[in-house]
Amino acid sequence: MKSYLYLKPLLLWKDPFYWFPIFHIDSDWLKSIFPALVKAGIIGLLVAMAGLSKHRKDSLLITCVLVYFTLLYSMYFVMDRYNEPLMPLIFLGMALGARVVLRW
């Protein structure tokens, strides 16, 4: 049970998928900022859900999609490349959280 609920989600969200350099961006730099991006997105979604805003339903939907796919991928084989399609949702979470904080 620990593997499905803790170890596999941690493995899924630990590192970015980055096989070869794009636009001369170093993989070490990307790996260093990736955890901060994921944490900022999750915190942004939580702030948007907790804040008194009209975006509560939007942030709840994005959070449910992220949790669903994290649990789905955790039931099977997990690789860091599986988080790549979910990164736009993380960025939306960052934006929603920033909007709620700036309007507060």
TrEMBL record:
This protein's record includes keyword Membrane: yes
Membrane-traversing stretches: 33-52, 59-79, 85-102
Keywords: Membrane, Transmembrane, Transmembrane helix
Keyword Transmembrane: yes
Protein name in the entry: Glycosyltransferase RgtA/B/C/D-like domain-containing protein
